[in-house]
Amino acid sequence: MLIIFLGVLSQWIAWRLRLPAIVLMSIAGLLIGPIFAVISPEESFGDLFRPLVSLAVAIILFEGSLNLNFKEIRGFSKPVWRIVTFGALLAWAGGTLASHYVAGLSWAVSFVIGGLFIVTGPTVIMPLLRQAKLKARPAALLKWEGIIVDPFGALLALFAFQFVLFAEGEVTAAAFGLFFLAALFATVLGAVAGFGMGWMFEHGQIPEFLKSPMVFGVVLLTFVISDIVMHETGLLAVTAMGMVMANMNISSINDMRHFKETMSILLISSVFMMLTASLSMDVLFEIFNWSIILFVLAMLFIVRPLSIWLSTIGTDLSWRERALIGWIAPRGIVALTVSGYFANVLLDAGFEDADLLTALTFALVFSTVVAHGFSITWVGRKLGLASAEDPGLIIVGASRFTTALAKVLHDMDKNVLLVDDSWGRLQKARQIGIKTYVGNILSEHTEYEVDLTPYEKMIVASETDSFNALVVNNFVPEMGRINLYQTALHEGDPADFHSSLSGRILFTEDWNIHSLDDKEEQGYAIRSTKLTERFTYEEFNQRWSANTIPLFVETAQGNIEFFTSDKVLEPKQGDTIISFTGPERDSDRIQERLESKRNKKDSQTKE
């Protein structure tokens, strides 16, 4: 209970304070584990500890590989494959040299651990990418590298271990060759399992309510069968399974992906807490050994940047992208779990210096998580590879009213994007300098063509209520229902749409997109009114309530808050109300001039 609760609580605090979640989970695990000795997961779970962690890692890696659609890297696949092949081998060589010459490990142990330390993985990369809001290309490069290299790193370590035993005469050449057969078996097993599940999904062989549970069970089965054949090949099998399913264009892949993402977040939180809470104080004291500190610095500032820069020579990556990717390489759960396994087998094989592996691995994991977790957003913005603007807004559906609304937001220096599938309806917006996109917001093409990372909120205001509801439900997992708005319903009874099927209703339920467009045609205009000590929100309501629709409030801090049917705003002094107001009457203009003169006189008196 404590592990799950504190893990999820750490994720929530990180979201609220915009901090790296992995760092908070690591700190929480250390506090309840070695520092205050509240729990000891390894003792509590006993023999189940390692298997539970391994199964959790398998699910996490499979969920990450479900996002590896080859369409995402169309146009920059060359640097991806260079990084995960040539770059990984360079990192292996560099890690081996650093382990031997800096950390003082024997060549055999260095050869094994050098292969393992090339891993980054979805357990650490995905949370950082959610936090940093990097641009599409560097984010995709880091994601693909992390997910593909995770099983590759475990396999390299296993290959190195088998090679060391062969060189020592412990195993025969035939036994050493079995490693390659086991890796091939794992790949084929995962691909067949993925294709089989995809085929059954598309041919209606599995009902909707059983799809996620069935995949869950098959992932574990595939992982365990492969791991029984040869230890650590299960990660390769589940990665192959996820990649095959991701590229089969399965109609229900998104629903399944959302379920797996929820499971993955829960498992990442729990496993990271379990691993850090299981460390001993002796391991923590060992971390402050000078040789370990120098090893971590060498991996951070020499091995990683050098492997990326050399492996991407001749690609179209800019120096900024190479610099960012060369810096970001946090190690995570796979490094911790797999290093524990190799520490034991190396000690059993007679390599006494392998007892340093746990401290070495945790030092690298914690250092990279902290260094990269706190710096990724800052470095991304400095290099122009992350959104430096305030969170933006997408408006779906171009009309007279939404174009006017987008112009006001644009003039207020807000990052706004107007999306519609009609070139003609977007013409006016383009003429006045508003950022536009022609296409269906729900199409797969849009997903890969438009970088939605900088946008935090969305207004859906097409002429079709059912389409609006569909768009809202599609973006709930990414943006959250609290940030999704739509104009009032105009087709049938509003009770026909359950609140869970629609976004927050903008303004009031009396004004739909058709009535708003009609008012704009009649001469209504969007205007701003700043609240002062003399002119309060109450006075605003009294004067303008007859022919005014309040749209949103820009607070004194520059934040945007929309008026909705489910929330009553209370603007304060210094806030600016943006409203949709009918043609002014003579008395209104006279009153406004008098108010302006009074404010000017008060200002002169104060001066």
Automatic annotation (TrEMBL):
UniProt cross-references to SUPFAM superfamilies, sorted A to Z: NAD(P)-binding Rossmann-fold domains
Protein topology in the membrane: Multi-pass membrane protein
Gene Ontology terms for molecular function: antiporter activity
Residue stretches making up the Cation/H+ exchanger transmembrane domain: 4-380
Stretches assigned to the RCK N-terminal domain: 394-474
Basic and acidic residues bias locations: 583-607
GO terms classed as biological process: potassium ion transport; proton transmembrane transport
Broad class of where this protein is predominantly found: membrane
Keywords of the record: Antiport, Cell membrane, Ion transport, Membrane, Transmembrane, Transmembrane helix, Transport
Subcellular location: Cell membrane
InterPro entries named in the record: Cation/H_exchanger_TM, Na+/solute_symporter_sf, NAD(P)-bd_dom_sf, RCK_N
Transmembrane residue ranges: 21-39, 51-68, 80-101, 107-129, 141-167, 173-197, 209-228, 234-250, 262-281, 287-311, 323-344, 356-379
Region entry Disordered, spans: 577-607
Domain of life, source organism: Bacteria
A cellular-component GO term for this protein: plasma membrane
Protein name: Sodium:proton antiporter
Species whose genome carries this gene: Planococcus maritimus
